Predict the structure of Polyphosphate kinase 2 family protein.
Amino acid sequence: MTRETYWREDPAELLRARPGIRLTEVDPDSHPGIRGSKSDGEEELVEGAGILADLQELLFANSRLGDRRRILLVLQAMDSAGKGGIVKHVMSAVDPSGVQLTSFKKPTEEELGHDFLWRISKASPGPGMIGVFDRSHYEDVLIGRVRELAPPEEIQRRYEAINEFERGLVAGGATIIKVMLHISRDEQRKRLGARLDRPDKHWKFNPGDIDERELWDDYQRAYEAVFERTSTLEAPWYVVPANRKWYARLAVQHLLIEALEGMALEWPKADYDVVEQQARLAVS
Amino acid sequence: MTRETYWREDPAELLRARPGIRLTEVDPDSHPGIRGSKSDGEEELVEGAGILADLQELLFANSRLGDRRRILLVLQAMDSAGKGGIVKHVMSAVDPSGVQLTSFKKPTEEELGHDFLWRISKASPGPGMIGVFDRSHYEDVLIGRVRELAPPEEIQRRYEAINEFERGLVAGGATIIKVMLHISRDEQRKRLGARLDRPDKHWKFNPGDIDERELWDDYQRAYEAVFERTSTLEAPWYVVPANRKWYARLAVQHLLIEALEGMALEWPKADYDVVEQQARLAVS
């Protein structure tokens, strides 16, 4: 597998959540696998953007001729960790026709009337697409656990239900990449503060963000339980240090590129006779 | 209303489908309202991209505080006229979180079991979004009419049903922009030929494209009937000359910018006490 030139080591290896991982052991300021500074990072994001766009077009082209493969990128994080920035700065490189983005909010009454995977399943990406979940079914074992929105035995059941659900997606052709953007508590204070300081950012802030922030340690434990129970071979978790936005964006971009390169895609062969169609076209 | 600097006349005025419009009277090679060449067009697209992205963020920000406004861009055209290029080159400027794109294919069995507006209605954009329909309910009075997929009286009924449906969207906060990308028959031959000549473009070609092409004049008449019956004050049609891709992209980009500028959007006021939240954050 080739690699964009600026990675010194394979970030997929460096970032994968290992059994027993503790978030306190991952430095949110670090930038594993890559030397360089913010300004380099921005140039490199542009290099990767072209690669990613081309690979997604190949994936899409193959889907038109029956290939069932697709990507699902799951983004989870504490508020202000940069999920929106990943969507804006990484996914915008890809033809909008090839991206299927779903932002999961607090469930509606109708959604609560169904199993927690009902709305998730409906949003899973079609063949040839890169699906992106901005929040996901993992909220149901994160806020679900921290806020005790469901009894403990239901939370336990959900981990297994999630693994089963994801196995089904993989069997259907999906490559699943699960990313937790890892920021520090201080960094979050700074970012929320910046939203409060700028009138053009006020709309991004919600007083509830501070309520959640006060449960910081509980959320960190809930994430660790998620890694422990749902980081599988088929659908691994990656913990991406995200205090430096440029690093988080490059890392997620790379995970997508690596997944697509692993598919060894070629332009699909025409399922019609090219010469015959050229002749038809000439007289049409 | 301000205008990007390169337009000499308002393209919205120049391109709007007037009563009695005949497609033979619109030159697909022309570039109304703008001097300049392909290379200028590309620079100008970049200028407009930033403007469009900023305006969409404003629209989205307001929706978070209850504003119901949204945009719906409807794209219709003969094959290879450049719908996909508009999505790729114009819409990619906007944060993917703010775009809701739906590509309508041949209806499924389930969709055919419902009224033709069923699947359309489900895909209409939420507040703060720019919805894009790549093909739309207009297929049901275009291919529907040309291929006689429904009896003539049903086609007649649909024009009125469409107007009624669109009035409802407008009442709900939508600004509707309907675009027909207008290419010449010769230009289509050239473009389909290019797809056949390049193995990396074979997947974009379908022998059925030539079958449709052979009904060119019928389609042109069906489009004229669409303009006649459904170009309303609330939801006008624009006929965009599209033999020059750079022009069509600039024109559609401008129609979006003009619609957003017409909303006179400002950053929404916070619905919480900023100073109080700053104090809470400081001790959290």
The mean pLDDT of chain B is 95. The beta strands of chain B are 70-77, 99-103, 130-134, 174-182, 237-241. The two ends of chain B are 45 Å apart (CA to CA). Chain B touches chain A through 44 residues (CB under 8 Å).
